[in-house]
Design brief:
With about 375 residues, this protein is an alpha/beta fold. The protein is built from 17 helices and five strands. A five-stranded parallel β-sheet has the order 2-3-4-1-5, with helices on both faces. The termini are far apart. Bound molecules: zinc ion (ZN). Zinc ion binds next to helix 3.
Length: about 375
């Protein structure tokens, strides 16, 4: 991957290149950035930049055999460690070597991948992913061997959050004093889940969210219509993975629309199991997404109220929202509309104030059930 293929992040790219050209690169770096920011993509582009024999002042060449091998994840001196699970009962000695083929395929299609996407790729059950102590031995073995290609060796450790004490302890020495021309590129999303022993041995490269404008431009480059690009850039909130998901859905609001409709049905029926499960899913999203969803929900309640009283000429609903609302609007009326909106607004503020989302949303769902099923007292 060339730097040119990494979305946005131009200031960070220049800083990395500058530091390398001035010989100021640590032998262990950690690309720390939120999901969809391109932390892994940047680590890959950086490794390619360092390894490329024909690099320019701003990028690797992208065409030499080294670049091509790195690009197709076949470069013998670039090693990957990532979370995985033991292939079967009693196969505790599983390492990343056993997962390399699916990993390479996954990476080719989505260098902005998340740990959830990767898990979904390799298992249908919600199996717990690990980085076992055997993987530490695997890393040591790779890195103590001579370089195949005669240049730098790279060890990418994606989702360094998964390094637990046992595995990390076995790596501390080699991270601190790696063999000659060896660079560790850790990639992580959340600082609080990284062991201090690892953190103290790396130079942290903070990867910010991607600028909306850069997401917008990258979408235009994929032939997305300007209006849609602007809308997606707004909802994606600096997360390219999310932007792609929205791009591939029919309408940027569609993901929210489906969730909202499903949620309203659960609230109406007081589907307790469904509500708990849904609150749990929502809890896993980042706060910005949770807030986006709640403001979407608030808007839908408002639109349904208008639809109910003023008719469809006065509402802004797409076709999927419209067909749901034709049935749902009668439930939003002068008995409950005001309170429904107040409750959702309050939940929005609770989420903003870092309240425990799971609790806020399950609580909200039961309040909505009461309001949606309230009958006129007359
Ligand atoms: Zn090259």
């Amino acid at each position: 991957m060339q730097f040119a293929q990494v979305i946005g992040q131009s200031a960070l790219k220049s800083r990395l290149i500058g530091a390398f050209r001035e010989g100021r690169i640590a032998h262990a770096l950690m690309f720390l950035g939120p999901e969809g920011s391109g932390n892994l993509a940047l680590a890959l582009a950086f490794a390619q930049y360092i390894a490329c024999p024909n690099k320019s002042e701003s990028d690797s060449c992208g065409t030499c055999p080294t670049c091509k091998k790195i690009d197709t994840h076949q470069f013998a001196d670039l090693h990957y460690t990532f979370p995985f699970f033991n292939k079967s009962e009693g196969s505790e000695k599983t390492t990343c070597n056993d997962w390399l083929a699916p990993w390479r395929n996954h990476l080719k299609s989505s260098p902005y991948t998340t740990v959830d996407d990767w898990r979904n790729e390799i298992t249908e059950d919600n199996k717990q992913l690990i980085m076992s102590v055997y993987e530490a031995a695997n890393i040591m073995q790779h890195l103590t061997l001579k370089s195949y290609e005669g240049g730098y060796k790279f060890q990418i450790i994606w989702m360094a959050e998964y390094l637990k004490t046992d595995t990390a302890n076995k790596l501390l020495k080699i991270v601190e004093e790696p063999p000659e021309k060896t660079i560790f590129l850790f990639v992580a999303s959340s600082l609080e889940n990284i062991l201090q022993t690892i953190l103290s041995r790396v130079q942290v490269v903070y990867v910010p969210k991607i600028e909306d404008q850069d997401i917008h431009d990258a979408l235009l480059a994929q032939n997305c219509a300007p209006d849609k690009a602007a809308e997606i850039a707004h909802f994606a909130h600096g997360d390219w993975n999310k932007a792609l998901q929205l791009l591939n859905s029919q309408n940027p609001d569609e993901t929210y629309a489906k969730q909202f409709q499903q949620w309203m049905r659960m609230c109406y029926k007081k589907d307790v199991t469904g509500i708990i499960k849904w609150s749990d899913e929502m809890h896993k999203l980042n706060r910005e997404d949770q807030k986006h969803f709640l403001s979407y929900a608030l808007d839908q309640i408002r639109q349904n109220l208008v639809l109910n009283y003023a008719g469809e000429d006065f509402v802004r609903l797409n076709s999927s929202e419209k067909s749901f609302s034709d049935k749902f609007a009668p439930f939003i009326n002068d008995l409950n509309a005001q309170e429904l909106m107040e409750e959702i607004t309050e939940a929005y503020h609770d989420v903003t104030r870092n309240a425990y989302t799971k609790l806020v949303l399950s609580d909200l769902s039961f309040k909505l059930h009461y309001l949606l099923t309230r009958k006129s007292e007359a």
